[in-house]
């Protein structure tokens, strides 16, 4: 988790104002939309990891406008808080709540890892960055996605799996499981 958090925050710090309207491999989002998504759901993930009551939030992600002010600092702090909370073994044990339903703590931890790795890659790729990713984080995300990708597709969270060779790097296999084409390139 610490490596995945570090990878994501490195990308977030590289995002400039001119980058916010760029398309991302996560086809429903621009860079701004994806950052808004992370800022919207991150506090709910954090309270779920900490097994606390969920925080109040805007009625919907679509109506929230969270990429304002010092959004980079807020997002980097949120990522650090999530990684720190998930360093406690208790966060991975038992159950917690998020979105009204009870879920295993290990599922929430896995969701956070996938958010860090996959959306970190989405953002970096939108910027045209070919930065290296932590191999441990990529393997962890692939493991989580092997267990949850099909359910995610049924919930319209992930697109159809993309075919990649079995010999592809773990990051490419994780991305493919999430419905992303590891070869995606920004236009222009």
From TrEMBL:
Protein known as: TIGR03086 family metal-binding protein
Domain Mycothiol-dependent maleylpyruvate isomerase metal-binding: 3-124
Alphabetized InterPro entries for the sequence: CHP03086 (IPR017520), DinB/YfiT-like (IPR034660), Maleyloyr_isom (IPR017517), MDMPI_metal-binding (IPR024344)
Record organism: Prauserella oleivorans
